[in-house]
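Supplementary Note 2. Why include the ligand at all?

Several targets in our set were suspected to adopt different conformations when bound, so apo predictions alone were not considered sufficient. For every target with a known small-molecule partner we therefore ran a joint prediction. The input for glycylglycylglycine is given below.
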Amino acid sequence: MEKTSVALIPGDGIGIEVVAETRRVLDKLSAFSGSVTFDYTEFPWGCQYYVEHGVMAPRDFLSTLADFETIFLGAVGYPGVPDHVSLWGLLLPIRRTFEQYVNLRPVKLLRGVESPLRKYAAGDIDFVVIRENTEGEYSNIGGRIHSGLPQETVIQNTVFTRFGCERIIRYAYELAVVSSKKKVCGATKSNGINWTMPFWDEIFDAVGEAEFPQVERQLVHIDALSAFFVLKPHEFEVVVASNLFGDILTDLGAAIVGGIGIAPSANINPRRDHPSMFEPVHGSAPDIAGKGIANPVGQIWSAKMMLDHIGQSELGDRLLESVEEVLAEGIVRTPDFGGASTTAEVADAVIEKLSRLDW
Ligand code: GGG
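The joint prediction is reproduced in token form.
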């Protein structure tokens, strides 16, 4: 049986609840299948750790994580710790140090989920957003001078490297080819942002023309693209975007397929020379934390992406199909989906579906 080492970082708020329930689901899946086991090591890092130690994680946390095959993260951020402190102290260093330069975020309408765009049925919306994950607008190059004076000034630079743009754009085209998709859409804003975005567009066209002439390509300004996600989401197959654009677009993507509670993501190092990390798109949701009612589907779907990454995509498909079965029945659902079920009840229902499969 294949054994995969997993660094578990539940993090903050509902992250703690959804990771615990997803771990239970994964352990059952492992027992049913007999083909994979997970060797977990849990780390208590996050905002509570910050309150106690003044840092989000121990100084050597990146070298600790480096030895794991995968990282499974819940959520980061909690009132009392500034959001930029919590993100820059834990999540962003992991993405950068381990060169998880691809943030893969599927936007798919599952069975049993009603889109707020009412003409759409399950499967009608099915595309993936590839977000650049290590540079772009999420750059810590900048500074603040003259604090407290009338001339106080802050500068945050956006960083687009040829290396970084080429590799993420190439990944998007490659994904289109291997998944038999016909077109790739690039998110831009090269009318208003006159250095980085024309550079991005140039690379998008050059890589497409030279290496993937068979793939249809189109650059769309981010403002229009946001509208098209609502007006004609069925037309998208693969969307590639810079760090901030991809982050914003995927909250909208999550909203059109049922909500942020079910949206998964994978932070991937395609070279596999460092661990990849799997986490839901949602944050720590302090308003419902501790109540046991968080939707675990985003975290469970992220586990499916982890299974895909470790070469267990058949198990991953079975896991997502079981989630879809539960959603399609419409009986066990958390309050964000109009139900009254708890996080644990949803996990139990998924486990029950898995137990009925032919193993
Ligand atoms: N589930 C991960 C998490 O807590 N995300 C919150 C967040 O704001 N992340 C920012 C980002 O993905 O850039």
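Residues 126-256 form a domain with the Isopropylmalate Dehydrogenase fold (CATH 3.40.718.10). Residues 75-77, 87, 247, 279-280, 282-284 surround glycylglycylglycine (CB under 6 Å). Comparable summaries for the other entries are listed in the accompanying table.
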